[in-house]
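Course assignment 3, question 2. Fill in each field.
Student: A.L.
Task: Predict the tertiary structure for the chain below.
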Amino acid sequence: MIPLVRHAAALCVLGAALTACGTTGTEVAPRPAPSAPAPSPSASRTPTPTLAPGPAGLTPVFEHGPRTGGTKGGAKDGKLVALTFDADMTADQGPRAASGERFDNPGLIAALRELKVPATVFMTGRWAEEYPDEARSIGRDPRFEIANHSYSHYAYTDDCYGLPTVSADRMRSDLERAYTAFEKAGVAHPMPYFRFPGGCYDKAALEELSATGVTAVQWDVVSGDAFATDADAVTRQVLDGVRPGSVVVMHCTRSAAPVTEKVVRAVVPELRRQGYRFAKVSELIGAANGHA
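Answer field:
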């Protein structure tokens, strides 16, 4: 049995906070089918690196790239690191957004562009619906790639930091609904990668999503940026945790992670000084395939 995988304690706070949004049930309410079919997550201009299915055909799970040096898989060196950002927004947070709460972070995206840092944004469908212009801008920037973080940011397991849950028979439709939201926002080529809300998954979830063809992407470095107010402490946590091939999880939600832009501006030059090169998740997966 595959164990439940969870965020560190700092992200537990984020999960608990996301439930305080007027949710009364534990499952996504039934919704009409989308007017247009969801785009295939594998649709892309060029072949997209993915992992082979796991044991018994389960959805494969990627946590980090190669730890060793070399040039296989197209990597220039072994010191690659991927910064990833979760654009969280639950299906029920529309009223909070309407009242002025910001679930986006344009300053962070601007900083990544200024620093010329490639990155992967794991976006919920609800976020794309709330900020379609930003989703489209990120999706059309070749420096970035957009991947799936579910439609609703409801958990795919029980007991996931208090998040509401999606029933097993709705997991696939929740994932596909996010791709439909990306398409409507003008994101033409989302990646076939999926990050579980709260980072929680089990064998049942991997079985249910196996037919979608996605690779589940986790991480090996928790930034601790969720609701943090001490940018220096978050910066130290990232720098202390990064190793060659690391995937760092951060957030692209200004109200829930207010110091992330400052952290990025500190982390990027220091990691470059240490000889790291920033990569999108697709490059790390490609490097992992080359090292297999």
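Instructor remarks: The first helix runs from residue 9 to 18. The first strand starts at residue 61 and ends at 62.
Grade: pending
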